[in-house]
Design brief:
It is built from 1 helix and 12 strands, in the order αββββββββββββ. The chain has 166 residues and is mainly β.
């Protein structure tokens, strides 16, 4: 039985665009249905001479004794980059094994001022992720979208609010 990291590395190994041995795990985060893995991978452009870095988030659900990969996405590949001076991020939603929609947001901090991020979902739920590793990833089942990203300082004060538009 493969663990999530082995599943990710196997999938990356199947792609001719991924530079071999470029996988770099940046963070793992738990969510109510399983785990999220945030990592960087270098990819080749068409001629394989030029490389560019991509920033990924893969989602796994634990079913019985197995990990089920329910989806993943990459900033720089299939998702647009959203950014401010302090963060770079992307967001979306994916369906779990049970058919439930899961809204998510993930990204990285670009400023030491950002100590945590708070995310507001369309359901009104608010979740927070601390960023000591300069990465954040949050997902919420039964939500369709993220509507707002709030950046917080070391005092826990919101100092920047970013509205999210689809």
């Amino acid at each position: 039985m493969l663990n999530p990291i082995q599943i990710i590395q196997w999938q990356l190994g199947q792609s001719k665009r991924v530079v071999p041995n470029s996988f770099n795990l940046l963070a793992t985060r738990q969510w109510s249905n399983g785990m999220m893995f945030v990592y960087q991978v270098s990819c080749y452009l068409n001629e394989r001479e030029t490389k560019f870095d991509t920033f990924w988030c893969d989602f796994f659900e634990q079913k019985s004794n197995a990990w089920l990969h329910i989806g993943g996405c990459a900033i720089g590949m299939d998702l647009p980059v959203n950014s401010s001076e302090r963060v770079q991020f992307s967001h979306g939603n994916l369906r779990g094994a049970d058919g439930v929609s899961n809204a998510f947001i993930y990204g990285r901090t670009l400023s030491p001022d950002v100590v945590s991020v708070e995310v507001v979902f369309d359901s009104g739920a608010i979740l927070e992720d601390w960023t000591p590793d300069e990465v954040f990833a949050i997902a919420l089942p039964n939500a369709i979208s993220v509507v707002e990203l709030r950046l917080k300082n070391y005092r826990g004060e919101v100092f920047e609010t970013i509205p999210i538009r689809d």
